[in-house]
Amino acid sequence: MAKELDFLTKRSEDYSKWYNELVIKADLAEQSDVRGCMVIKPYGYAIWEKMQRALDDKFKETDVQNAYFPLLIPKSFLSREAEHVEGFAKECAVVTHYRLKTNDSHDGVVVDPAAKLEEELIIRPTSETIIWNTFKNWIHSYRDLPLLVNQWCNVMRWEMRTRLFLRTAEFLWQEGHTAHATKEEAEARAQQMLKVYADFAENYMAVPVVQGVKSETERFAGALDTYTIEAMMQDGKALQSGTSHFLGQNFGKAFDVQFLNKENKMEYAWATSWGVSTRLMGALIMTHSDDNGLVLPPALAPIQVVIIPIGKADQMPMLNEKAEAIVKNLRAMGISVKYDNADNKRPGFKFADYELKGVPVRLVLGARDLEQGLVEIMRRDNLEKTNVPVDGIEEHIKNLLDEIQANIFKKAKDFRDAHIYECDNYEEFKERVKDGGFFLCHWDGTAETEAKIKEETQATIRCIPFGFEQTAGVDMVSGKPSVARVLVARSY
RNA sequence: CGGGAUGUAGUACAGUUGGUAGUAUACUUGGUUUGGGACCAAGGGGUCGCACGUUCGAGUCGUGUCAUCCCGACCA
Q1: Which domains are seen in chain A, by residue range?
Q2: Which positions on chain B have an atom < 7 Å from some protein CB?
Q3: Is the ipTM of this complex over 0.90?
Q4: Is A241's CB less than 7 Å from nucleic acid strand B?
Q5: Among chain A residues 198 through 237, which have CB within 7 angstroms of nucleic chain B?
Q6: DSSP of A350-401, one letter per residue?
Q7: For A52-70, what is each residue's pLDDT tens digit?
Q8: Of A68, A115, A148, A466, most Cβ neighbours within 10 A?
Q9: A295 C-beta less than 7 Å away from strand B
Q10: Half-sphere CA count of A416, side-chain side, radius 13 A
Q11: What is the tens place of the pLDDT at every residue in A304-347?
């Protein structure tokens, strides 16, 4: 019998609660005792590592190299670019001292007032400033360009309200920073990296995304253009899953990064930056999971196949032998597999546990079935169980993994497409947007209209989407002419 | 920083008019089990967030304080 206490909140009942419980119970992460921070547990980190590896490979295919820059940024660096400091000032953690000392009663430590820093250091909320300060030394000629670097690191943004993976004070990410000799090249790079993100989201995470460009008010602090991929979660809300910024010459000018171009003239370098964070974990969870727990795409699942034996004690040696042969064959095919013959947990517990953890394929090696040369195979995406011959099971599994990867993407895409609406009536919009979904609406391009929508409905313009056939129309709020539809939704 | 709530075992909670600190789960040990989250028995685990006050006596009442969570504002 199911023990109610241990089961998840139903997804449909309380989406936020369900999400939070799922992250904790699937052993991905937990709230740290440190305010606003998160502990990523080994299983969660294993998924993140697979994401990192796949992304890193893609970056390298586009000639990007990894590097590492300091965690601490002098306060003066941050203020060099006006909009940039404006955007981040409110959420920076500041280092003011470099030493502690024991207190007067010798039972604790206090900050040593004598160790006050001349200039405060900021824990990086992002690294544009310190990187461009460094680029100044690296760039002298057009021959030094393009300069394409990425770093995997942690950053800190002192958020008021946090949620596991979606918004934490400290988070892990990658931030790519590039410098170019021409505007065109920089713009192309920003768009190229957006494509890399979109490709990764769809083909590895199986998360369909809308690509587009942010409106002026939603832009990254200091950017001329911010490109974005927006995913739809199962409650219909949007999640900004990755961004790529065209920074123009803003940082080149702020940090005086000039080079001699082919015409022997000094010119400021053109910049891009782009990043994805552990928030992708949130996207992965909220896109595919169901009431039984996580559903992981095979491409990112740390364990792709779990094998569970069932039999009496005297049958175990035979089952172990059978299983080990399958494990060996699967590993040789590059499939990660776990054989769980722990005898301190009953099969039912294991079934539930691996479902909770989203393992794509489960094989039940039962003594009873094996007599007929069969094993039970269950796919996590639709929970279907079938008995298949144990001979040739490896090939069957390989195909099934591919099928699951394709199927969960299709499922997510069908769901999203069914919740994208064209809407031309503001009253109708106000009513329907509460229930979630993406709305394609005409917009007059003004910040006033944007602010009004946000204030009255909590929905924001997520992006001006690419890849849609656009026709002119009339703004649903102001009635003014509009050249194109924009994507409007409530978001995380 | 505005509005609301909550602090009791690792976790989730109960605790009546103030009178020996409880339940479930998790944990430890032993045994029986193992085809969908097992059962039985025994055991360990608490300055009831903190401080002060009222009282013979405070988890319970009062004041203060700290922390956390939820709804806003801000955000990858």
Answers
A1: 27-70+128-288 (3.30.930.10), 305-401 (3.40.50.800), 421-489 (3.30.110.30)
A2: 1, 24-25, 33-39, 67-76
A3: no
A4: yes
A5: 220
A6: HHHHHHHTT-SEEEEEEHHHHTTTEEEEEETTT--EEEEESTTHHHHHHHHH
A7: 999 999 999 999 999 999 9
A8: A148
A9: no
A10: 25
A11: 999 999 999 899 999 999 999 999 999 999 999 999 999 899 99
Predicted confidence (pLDDT) per residue in A127-138, tens digit: 999 999 999 999
Note the pLDDT of residue A2. 31
Contact between the CB of A15 and strand B at under 7 Å: no
| A416 pLDDT above the threshold of 60 | yes
**Angstrom distance, A4 CA to B1 C1':** 40
Contacts 24+ apart (CB under 8 A), A140-146: A140/A259, A140/A260, A141/A259, A141/A260, A142/A181, A142/A259, A142/A260, A142/A261, A142/A262, A144/A259, A145/A179, A145/A180, A145/A181, A145/A259, A145/A269, A146/A178, A146/A179, A146/A180, A146/A181, A146/A185, A146/A189
Nearest CA among A478, A372, A370 for reference residue A424:
A478
Q: Residue A7: which nucleotide is closest by CA–C1'?
A: B37
- Angstrom distance (rounded) from CA A234 to CA A8: 16
- Give residue A179's Cα distance to chain centre: 25
- What 3-state class would DSSP assign to A332? helix
Any atom of strand B under 7 A from CB of A14? Answer: no
- The answer to whether the beta carbons of residues A123 and A95 sit under 8 Å apart is yes
Q: What percent of chain A has pLDDT over 90?
A: 77
Question: Which nucleotide's C1' atom has the smallest distance to the CA of A278?
Answer: B76
Q: Which nucleotide is nearest to A371 (CA to C1')?
A: B35
- In order of A36, A160, A223, A349, the CA distances from A32 in angstroms are 7, 15, 33, 28
pTM (whole model) above 0.90: yes
Determine the distance between A1 (CA) and B75 (C1') in angstroms: 43
Q: Which residue has the tokens 């993140």?
A: A48
Query: CA A346 → C1' B21, Å?
Result: 35
Determine the nucleotide nearest to A170 by Cα–C1' distance.
B76
| Nucleotide nearest A312 (Cα, C1') | B34
Query: Phi and psi at residue A71, in whole multiples of 5°?
Result: -70, -35
Percent residues over pLDDT 70 in chain A = 98
| Bond into A146 cis (ω within 30) | yes
Average pLDDT over residues A233-239: 93
pLDDT at A215 over 70: yes
Q: Which residue is nearest to nucleotide B24 (CA to C1')?
A: A5
